[in-house]
Each structure stands twice: as C-alpha cells, then as structure tokens.
Amino acid sequence: VYGLIVAMKVNIGLLKNDLSKYLHKVRSGEEVTITDRNEPVAKIIPLEKPLIRASMKAWLKIHPPLKTVKKQPPSSKLVRALRDEDT
C-alpha cells in the first residue's frame, strides 16, 4: 500500500514525550523502532489502509446494482382505487 518505507529509531523516553509526533510519522508511512539503551525492543508500523473506493468498484462489478422498477403510483391512489372497486 505504501511506497518506500522509511525507518527511524527512537528511545523510549523521547517516544513518551512526543508520542503524537511519532504516530503522525507512522500514519504517513514511516516505521518507528523503539529502543531501550540503544537495544531495539519494539516496532510501530503503519496499518494497511483499505482502498475503499477500489474495493467498492470491485464489489460492484460482482454485485451490480438492482435495476429500478417502473415507478408506481402513490399508495393513496391505490387505496382509492381499491375502495372504488368495493362500491
């Protein structure tokens, strides 16, 4: 989904102080490796974003919209016609 993935390292202390900054970087496609005393301990990676429009187009190819039915008269006219038949 993402092109080139950029990786960066950050110490736990810096991550705690600027978590929103690093999450913004992850949202833009970067990977963040969390280190403790220069030892990697975890990695934050971006989630794959679903391509909603593309997947919807593919779904519509398999499941085309239903054809519309010829416009029906309003129900009030149908009720009147039924009443007229009873008299």
Q: Give, in order, the helices and strands.
A: EHHEEHH
Uncertain runs: none
Number of distinct beta strands: 3
Helix content: 40-55%
Written account of the structure:
The structure is a single chain. This protein is an alpha+beta fold and 87 residues long. The protein is built from 4 helices and 3 strands; from the N terminus they run E-H-H-E-E-H-H. The chain has a 3-stranded mixed β-sheet. Strand 2 and strand 3 form a beta hairpin. The N and C termini lie far apart (69 Å). The model has no long low-confidence stretch (mean pLDDT 82).
Please give a quick description of this structure.
Helices cover 44% and strands 20% of the residues. The chain has 87 residues and is of the alpha+beta class. It has a 3-stranded mixed beta sheet.
Task: Describe the secondary structure blueprint for this structure.
Blueprint: E1 7-11, H1 12-17, H2 19-27, E2 31-36, E3 39-44, H3 52-62, H4 75-86
Parallel strand pairs: 1-2
Antiparallel strand pairs: 2-3
Features:
20% strand, 44% helix, rod-shaped, three-stranded mixed sheet, alpha+beta, 87 residues, 3 strands
